[in-house]
Amino acid sequence: MEDLAHIVVYPAALPGWEVLVPGCEEPECFDDRAAALAYAHGVAEALRPCRIQVEDWYGHIECEWTLSTEPAAAT
Questions:
Q1: What's the rounded Cα separation, in Å, for the pair 26 and 74?
Q2: CA dihedral in degrees (28, 24, 71, 69; nearest 10)?
Q3: pTM of the predicted model, to two decimals?
Q4: Residue 21 is assigned to a structural domain of this protein
């Protein structure tokens, strides 16, 4: 099985959300969840194939999805 880049979106210790991207030492910080998810999706598009995982305050996975090697064809 192919190794996937793994991006994690999680609540920050202070108000806001953080996105941890492979290869980055520090997470990116965002004021709201929507902005964090939009950033994570943009990075995942560039890193295809890639998995995005969203965690809650306790580190439990709320949801995750995988972007395959090729984007879906437009219809």
A1: 35
A2: -160
A3: 0.85
A4: yes
For 32, the 3-state DSSP assignment is coil
Helices then strands, each counted (H, E), the chain: 1, 5
Q: Is residue 73 part of a domain?
A: no
* Rg (alpha carbons) of the chain, rounded to whole number: 13
CA distances from 6 to 14, 57, 71, 75 (A): 23, 19, 17, 28
Residue 56 lies in a domain: yes
Q: How many domains in the chain?
A: 1
In angstroms, the Cα distances linking 74 to 43, 70, 71 are 20, 12, 9
Nearest to 47 by CA among 73, 11, 16, 23: 23
Query: Model confidence over 8-49: pLDDT tens digits?
Result: 999 999 899 999 999 999 999 999 999 999 999 999 999 999
